[in-house]
Amino acid sequence: MAEFSPTRTHATWKPRVTPVPIPYFRCQECGAVLQGVDGDVEITMSDNHRSQVAELPYAHTDFHPECCGKPMERLEGISYLEVKDKLDLDYQIVGSYDHNALRVTWKVVEPGYEPRWFAIKTFTGVMTKYVTPKKWPPIVFAFADEDAYAYCDEDPCLECTFRCKRGMEVYCYTPKLGLIVMPLERMVATGSAGFDRVEVPKVN
Q: Are 14 and 149 in contact (CB under 8 A)?
């Protein structure tokens, strides 16, 4: 019997991600940011389009958080394409079947727009990582269970028409810009140049 990594998915179907964005809220007074996670709703599975999607609580709950005595504003996502002149984001799916992961890279084009944290919306929920001091790109999110679904064993991903991670979204927060959204839906045409690797700066 073949040996499998403990993070390898056993899903025989391609999972789908709920189209509802993760709700984030910011206090206009102190700058605190909250994420809507749960509510009094059932977690169910829909079986549309011949694949399953988890209907997660954040997608069906009406949040109204307050901070500093005032209602918090809901952060509306900005496309990563709109802010490339200030903060250039990119991604690569690596690791094949057994070590499936997402590598997120960034380049600060204009000082003051450094990312504070990244999060990724997956099939099963959300993962968050902070950009700690002296942290160079990339930042890596390791997948497991249904999130690790991969159609083929190419490493890195060839970004074919199957788009295994379609529906997943990367969220990047920077106080000056707010919430930046980068969907994992890129598709590279057959025979064209693949992923443009971002050069990692060297520490002197």
A: yes
pLDDT digits (tens, 9 = 90+) for 87-100: 999 999 999 999 99
Task: Report CA dihedral (79, 161, 167, 98) to the nearest 10 degrees.
Answer: -120
What's the Cα-to-Cα distance from 71 to each of 10, 36, 147, rounded to whole Å?
A: 43, 14, 34
Burial class of residue 13 (count of CB atoms within 10 Å of its CB; 0-12, 13-18, 19+): exposed
Residue with tokens 């991969």, as numbered in its chain = 150
Q: Which of 120, 104, 111 is nearest to 174 (CA)?
A: 111
* Structure confidence by residue, pLDDT tens digits, 78-87: 999 999 999 9
